[in-house]
Design brief:
With 146 residues, this protein is mainly beta. The chain has one helix spanning 10-19; strands at 27-28, 31-32, 44-48, 52-58, 67-72, 75-82, 100-107, 112-122, 125-132. The protein has 2 domains: 1-35, no CATH class; 37-132, Immunoglobulin-like (Sandwich), CATH 2.60.40.
């Protein structure tokens, strides 16, 4: 007996291909593809050195006024929002650029100095550097006579 492979839903993609040239982009047999707008979730790199932690957020298209960086209770938070405005009367035929806001948080180690934080935005990368506190060395305490 020979095994026969089938694609029972191949007709969906076949019918979708018929609609590709029509001005009703974003529709297909099972509904509207672009009904949900893309979401913003910036990718993050966290790099540790002997003196600091550097967190890099990938944020193409963002400007300084679109972003907010805070440190509270040992949590570094980056928030941002943006919108791509359309001309009057224009509508999307296809949409992949995300609008809206995001918030990403990173819990810092206990030895981080939340007063020594710097942030820099260049070429779509937000770099936040948090300095480590100097190591606390043991010390001898003098005892006074009463």
């Amino acid at each position: 007996m020979q095994l026969v492979r089938t694609r029972p839903f191949k007709f969906v993609s076949d019918i979708d291909s018929l609609f590709e040239g029509f001005p009703i982009a974003g529709t297909h047999l099972l509904g509207t593809r672009d009904r949900v707008a893309p979401t913003l979730v910036p990718r993050v790199d966290i790099i540790e050195s002997s003196t600091d932690i550097t967190t890099r957020f990938e944020l193409p298209g963002f400007e300084l006024g679109d972003l907010e960086v805070t440190v509270e209770d040992n949590v570094l938070t980056v928030k941002g929002s943006r919108a791509h405005d359309l001309a009057d009367g224009a509508t999307y035929r296809h949409r992949e650029l995300a609008d809206g806001g995001f918030s990403r948080s990173v819990t810092l180690a206990d030895n981080m100095d939340s007063d020594q934080v710097s942030a820099r935005l260049a070429n779509g990368i937000l770099e936040v550097v948090v300095q480590k506190q100097p190591d606390i060395l043991p010390r001898t305490i003098q005892i006074e006579a009463a």
